[in-house]
Design brief:
Order of helices and strands: HHHEEHHHHEEEEEEHEHEH
Strand content: 25-35%
Radius of gyration: 24 Å
Amino acid sequence: MKSERLLQIMLMMLNHNLVTAKELSIRYGVSIRTIQRDMDALSRMGIPIHSEQGVHGGYSIPTGYRIDRHTLTSKEQALILRTLRSVSGMVDDSDLNQAVAKISSVRATDVQLEPVWVDILPWDGNDQFSDLIGIIKQAIIDKKRLAFEYVKASGTTSQRKIDPFRVLLKGYSWYAYGFCHLRGENRLFKISRMRNLKRINENVYTTFSGEVPFANGEGHGEAIHVKCHKNIFYNGDTYIDPSKVIFDDEGYFEALLPFQIDHWTFGYLLSHSNYMEVISPKAVRDELLKRAKKAVDLYK
């Protein structure tokens, strides 16, 4: 989105002495003309953008400049800072770390008092996972291809080569989005399912500037009709809309879950044990029964 790109460009200029329109257009997958319009927009916001012409020219923000307190509200500063801190804890990125330091210096007292805390890190860290994200990120910047073995939810594996375009966080999972040479189209890959990831010495010549379609291609969407015990409601399940819950005399209620029918969904349904029964589709109910029987056999 444009607002996100403007913020990223502003932070990048705060962390670098000089950036060129060509460098920014490649980094964000837009035209040089779009970058020029972005600079005009930042100037209208009160950001002192200096433009230098010539072979060694580019855009810069004066050294020592701090974002004026009227440019971002204290709540906006706090939200950005919390999010950056969380992501920088998972991804070793010098730009992110410098951005955290700079924003921390702006109205630091207000930021500390902000009651909303954004933390996407797991309880136990995962250095190897952080390394994977770093490899993908650097390949995107350097316009290099990636090769890896991909494990689908079904357990089948395949060798993939992709032109990487984006690293994304969706829900609780990280994804890489790029052109898959095996399938001949843009695909979304769950990073936790990548094995033996490596950057290869092949250049990427294509660019991508659109919205990433969030569909993993490993399942199909269909509303799942479930009957739930009141304990699920009182435990605050985030996928149940409380405004639509009507209890019967025995303390049960019915709901529709708009999920992708895939490995994650079956895990979610099984995690509720005897407190959630699938009414339909029949195929989901039958698959749950089969998986439950396998789990019972394992512990006999």
